[in-house]
Each structure stands twice: as C-alpha cells, then as structure tokens.
Description:
Blueprint: H1 10-20, E1 41-48, E2 64-76, E3 90-97, E4 106-116, E5 120-123, E6 126-129, E7 148-158, E8 165-171, E9 178-180, H2 187-190, H3 193-201, E10 205-208, E11 218-227, H4 234-238, H5 245-249, E12 265-275, H6 276-279, E13 286-301, E14 313-325, H7 330-333, H8 340-344, H9 355-359, H10 363-372, H11 386-393, E15 411-414, H12 429-436, H13 454-462
Antiparallel strand pairs: 1-2, 2-12, 3-4, 3-13, 4-7, 5-6, 7-8, 7-9, 8-10, 10-11, 11-12, 13-14, 13-15
Amino acid sequence: MRFKRFSLGILAAAAACSVGISFASSHREAPFITTSPKVDGTDFYMFRSYEGIAADGSGGRSDYVTLLANYQPLQDAYGGPNYFSLDPNALYEIHVDSDGDAKEDMTFQFRFKNKLNSIPLMIGGKSIAIPLIQAGAVANVNDGNLNLNETYSLTLVRGARRKGTIETVGKSSGATTFEKPVDYIGEKTLGNASAYATYANKHIHEIKVPGCPAGKNVGRVFVGQRQDGFAVNLGTIFDLVNAPLAVITNPANIAAAQANSIQNKNVTTLALEIHKDCLTAGSETVIGGWTTASMRQGRLLSGAPASGHQTTDKTGGAWVQVSRLGQPLINEVVIGLKDKDKFNSSRPSGDGQFLDYVTNPTLPALLGLVLTGDPAALAPTNFPRTDLATVFLTGITGVNKPANVTASEMLRLNTALPPRQFADQNRLGIVGNILAGGSDNAGFPNGRRPKDDVVDIALVAMLGGLCMANGDNDTYKFNSIPGVPGATSACKPSSVPIKETSFKVHDAVDQAIVPFLTSFPYLNTPNPGARN
C-alpha cells in the first residue's frame, strides 16, 4: 500500500501534531526496546537556533539548526555506581532528508567507547581496584579522579546510511575523539548546578563538517546527561487518563498535574548544531529529520567474562535498527501494540504500511471512552482522517512542505522561517500562532523546540479543533494561516461538527514552565544524584 498525497492545511497542521503526539514522549514505547534502554530514543527536536538572536530572529546563532536526540528514558539521578553510559556496541544516528524523498541524504553517526582507568588504592600493601567510577571530586575534561572515561567518534555519511560516502567529523583542532561529561553523580563529586554546568560546557566541541559550503562548515556537538524536558503526567495518563474530565477541559487547570511530571528524571542527549546551508539542497529550504539506534544482529554472552569493563558479550553481524523517532509519540499512542516493534525497525520510505493508524486513529475514541464512557463523545466522525494524514505525511503547504515530497513520517523544518527568542516563543507553536494572530511559525509542527507543548497541540488536533482557532465553531472551512502567505487550511468544506471541547483540552501539565537553557544545548542541567 502506498500513501496518497493529500492537500495540506491548517486543520491538518495541528492534526499532524496530534498524529505524532499525545501523551508522553517515546519513553519505553515498544515491547522490545524496554529490554534495551540504552538505545531507547525518547525525544527528537529540530529547530533554528535561537541562542543570542535579536527580536526579529536575526543575529546570534540564527543561521544554524539544532538537532537534539534524547536516549535512555527515566534516569534516576541516584542510579550509581555505574550510572548511564551509552552502549559501545550500538550505533546512534541522526538523519537528515534534504530533498523530501523520504530517504536520508546526511547521517551523523555516533559511536561510543568506555575506557576503564582502573584507579587503585593500596590496601594492606596490595593495589586494589576501586568499585566506583570516581575517586574524588571531578571538575575537568578527562579529570584524573575519573575511573571511567566515556568518549565518542562522529562520522558523516552522505547518501544511504550503509552504502554512502563516509567522512570523519573532527574537532576544529583536528582531533577526532570527543569527550563526554560524566553523569551528574552528585554535588559532592561535581559541585552545585552552576559548577556542573561549567564542567559540562567544557564538553561542547567545535567541529568541522566536511563537504559543507566554505565558511559554513563549522558547527558544534555535545553529548551528555540532561534533565528530561518533556512535561507529562505519565502515571495518570496511562491509567486510563485517571483525572476528572473537568481537570483536562478547564483552562484554569492547565498546570494541575505539574508536580507529577517527569522533570525529576534525566535523559542523555546527542546534540548537534549545523549551519542551515549545510543541511539543505539547492533551492529547497525544508529539511526532514529523525533519529535511530541500531544494534548488531548477533550477541554472544560469555559464561566466564574476563576482568575489564563490559566484557561479558561479543557482538557481530549487520546493524539492526531497534529504535526510531521523528515526530513525538507516533509509536507510543498512534501505532497499534502489535506493530510497535515493526515501526521501530522501519524507515520513512516504508511508512505506507502504517497508514490506517493515522487515517483511522483510535486515540480520540479512547479518550471519549475513558473520560465520558462514550467513544463518540470527543472524536470527530469524518473518516478517513485526511486532516491528520496530510501533516503526518507531507508537511504544511506554505510552511514546511518540500516542493517534491514523498509521503513519510519525520519532523520537517523550514530553515527559511526565522527563529524566535525563547521568551517570545508560543508554547502552542503554529496552533498558538493562529490563536494569537501572531507570527511565530518556528514551532511545532514546523520542527520542534523544547518549549513547544506538543501534548496540548496534539490533543487539540486529534479532537478536530484547529478550525476553531480560525473562528469556525460549527463546520470545517477554508481559512488562511496568519503570518504565512499562501498557506491555507485543509478543513473540509462539508458540515462536519467540531467538538466543543476540542480547543479547551490539555493534559494539566504546562510545558512552558519547564526550565530550559537559552543557549546550546538548550536542555537543562541534569538533576544531581545527591545534594549537599
């Protein structure tokens, strides 16, 4: 089955959000990936950098695109003594489609290596290896008190990820080994939050990206632990939305469940900042992006491991993709349980096999069922839901649809639209822009920024509410998108009722009050394992 190409529009716009989003980011979203948390992708972000920019979106780092891929969900900061190093037997990748054909044109590959320093103590005249990953306070790159150093290499593949041209990405100094900061063990080891931020920032590396236009081939990379920035009340949501209907339909309760969100957890972030002209092709300004993790096909466990670090297994064979993430929450709340592992192993070019999950989504009916007892209470009744399929597959006309697009699921970003200063960003992205009649088109679903409240955007879209943003409370109709010339709504001109609640719903957790940085790598300093 192949995707049909649909006309795009504003209703589709918010809907697309919904297809990719709903209740929690991709934390433990598929059966197999729960067995391999080190390669479990949780969130993917892609946006024009807003570090140091002016109010009009110019200056600072505005000519760059930031790509953030989070892995290892729900990290408890106190999780010693080994904490959360990444898997040296895995391949972590960030893919960019520069021409809309649903195939990667650039792939940034991260490979990790753990070096055991075997710091000893003299005990009874014998040199005995210590049991911890640190022997004292840590403040510097490759600090002498670190018993375990985690490093990584970075390569760029142009063309198909396994058959394309491979080039090494190095530091501006010429070195090709990148250091990763140790996780935030605690304040006695690494100081307070300010001290840890200083330590972590020493691991932001300036890189030279081969094959990029002259003068635009310098970027930045960082890999390290961050506070989980995704705001959601996981327990309540997955317990059949265990909250009174009034809580999620009354705007006054928008932060009612904030204390139960997951900001007390950490994740591990792979962060890149690349000049936008390095990621685009020809006159096309829209890029697509997603992240994957792969493991070797074979694994042999040793019954008698030797001394060392992670020497209990041998791996070999072809790379097998086990995690995939573009738009948030696709696998978690859109794809059926039977196909979640299949989705994680799939590529955008094969997304036609999942079309029915988008055009006939179960989430609106489930919401109605668990909140009111009536599956039709909140759900639109027009099927197939082409309003969702358009944005899910192609991007929004006039916003982030490539000129020659092949239908597929990924984040899409128009690099020609200017970024917004953090304080001026509308947490509802393009949906909020419509409501406010503003000009913030740099947010979800045009890429995704940390501040974008993708859950609320998705809920509005899933329940058919985007047309209400244009003042149409009764039927779908065509309307223009404020601030985007030539972009129009794909709201159906037929008399299809829009649910009254659709533009009032939220998840009672406000993404906008989550702490973030205003500079690279944007996600906040992680939680410490212990405080002084």
